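Practice problem: predict the structure.
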Amino acid sequence: ILNWRPIEKNLARKELNLPQNLKLIIFGAVGGKKDSRKGFELLELALKYLKNMIKSDEVNLIIFGGKKSDVFPEINFKILKFNEINNDKILQKLYSAADVMIVPSKLETFGQTATEAMACGTPVVAFNNTGLSDIVEHKKNGYLAELLDIDDLAKGILWTLNHSDQKTLSLNARKRAENIFSEEAVKKKYLNIYNNLLLGK
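Answer:
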């Protein structure tokens, strides 16, 4: 978690040549949209659902992790492709530049991108009843939609983008990542397990 921390949003956007005056949604997965378990098609449907609620010139969608040859359908929002990224510094800037990270996985044991995004102060929208339920706190540092419910996923995106206190959402996301996944927090958990084993608990 020490490698992931917030970068000032305007600076991150400037360094990546991203628009300063728009809302930015980010989605990323190894293989991009190819892995159906990562749920890109559900995000696509949710964004189509939102086309009458958000103006197309107010939001851009950032996608990373795919291939240069990937083709994406029309979803009413401009797509900014970053393809495969093997540089954590660039990823850190991308997370920090975004207003919300969407992790619409149908199956997810952990959710590395969600944790990285939250460590960079970016709230996460995901489905409940996956491993992400242990990471995202509903309406505190993101939004947990009912599993595979596209309408609720869209509602979560809208709720996060329109939240009246973006700063608190961001601070809560960072704090959650620190409290659960920092080196100190993980060390304390291992020590507790070790001590309980010694005491026969």
